[in-house]
Write a structure and sequence with these properties.
It is built from nine helices and 14 strands. The protein is α/β, with parallel strands linked by helices. Strands 10-9-8-11-12-14-13 form a seven-stranded mixed sheet, with helices on both faces. A four-stranded antiparallel sheet has the order 2-3-1-4. Helix 4 (128-140) packs parallel to helix 5. It is globular. The chain starts with a strand and ends in a 7-residue tail after the last strand.
Length: 286
């Protein structure tokens, strides 16, 4: 299997636009280097490269010279990651590590250990948004929650974390086939095979069923589905949402409040924002 390695150069003006375009086009695994974003697209998805380049250049987000393509073998891509990937430590409670670092972990007593290797799907623990939502879970799950939904699960890292934190019933939903296959693999590796994984949209799920919903997806998808998220939570149910750029803070805050969510805390990391909110109880006077 070969991959196309693509370097997309950015500046302060187009940085946020680039991330939005990449996310909207299904590119969720992005490595940020000094001055450019690096992404990988599989050989059998080569058509996506031209589509992505046209979107970026035709809208004048970048000139063509700032979109650089190189064909690489899979082993080269993995080797590149292995040079840079280190375990991620979340709130002295969770350790996310690649398989090749497993035997080098220290101070693991009473820690939640999650093994995830970098792949084409989103959610290795090294992306800021994944770290934000794991921090929210570590700080705000109190052990009383019974049912959790991982909305747009990617590798399934949030579902795995939830299961290891003691959530009795964890449901993960995803629509991307590659992500689903990766998630199945990681549920097995992390011995959390009791997670229910569905190729499903949130609209297909039972209402009023979840104590917690985790959504690490782009803000547009979160906003579009706020009524669905609200409907699937129990009263006072918790929403951990990220994939939101800091510049979108006012918009997402307004939308949450208009959809009867109460924001309890905001988290910030790099260009990203995470929001911990709860579903307000219906007004009994109406």
């Amino acid at each position: 299997m070969h991959y196309y390695e693509i370097d997309i150069f950015f500046n302060k003006k187009n940085y946020e636009q680039l991330y939005n375009v990449l996310y909207y086009n299904g590119v969720q695994h992005i490595l940020e280097e000094e001055g450019f974003l690096k992404i990988y697209i599989e050989d059998n998805l080569k058509w996506k490269i031209e589509e992505l380049r046209n979107t970026l250049t035709n809208t004048n987000i970048i000139p063509e010279k700032d979109f650089v393509i190189k064909k690489v073998e899979n082993k080269n891509w993995n080797k590149e990651w292995e040079k840079t990937i280190e375990p991620v430590f979340i709130k002295n409670k969770i350790i996310v590590y690649p398989s090749w670092k497993k035997n080098k972990l220290k101070d693991t007593k009473d820690k939640i250990l999650i093994e995830i290797d970098p792949k084409m799907s989103f959610g290795t623990g090294h992306n800021e948004t994944t770290q934000i939502i794991l921090e929210m879970m570590a700080e705000n799950l109190d052990g009383k929650e019974k049912k959790l939904l991982d909305f747009g699960s990617g590798t399934g890292i949030l579902a795995i974390a939830a299961a290891k934190m003691g959530i009795e019933k964890v449901t993960a939903i995803e629509i991307d086939e590659i992500s689903i296959e990766n998630a199945k693999e990681y549920f097995k590796i992390n011995e959390t095979e009791n997670i229910r994984l569905l190729k499903s949209d949130i609209k297909e799920l039972k209402k009023g069923n979840f104590d917690v919903i985790c959504a690490n997806i782009i803000s547009g998808v979160i906003i579009e589905n706020l009524p669905e998220i609200y409907g699937r939570l129990v009263n006072n149910g918790k929403l951990f949402a990220t994939g939101i750029l800091k510049v979108e803070e006012r918009d997402i805050t307004d939308k949450l409040e208009k959809n009867d969510f109460e924001i309890l805390k905001k988290y910030y990391k790099a260009e990203w924002l995470g929001i911990y909110a709860i579903k307000k109880q219906p007004d009994s006077s109406n």
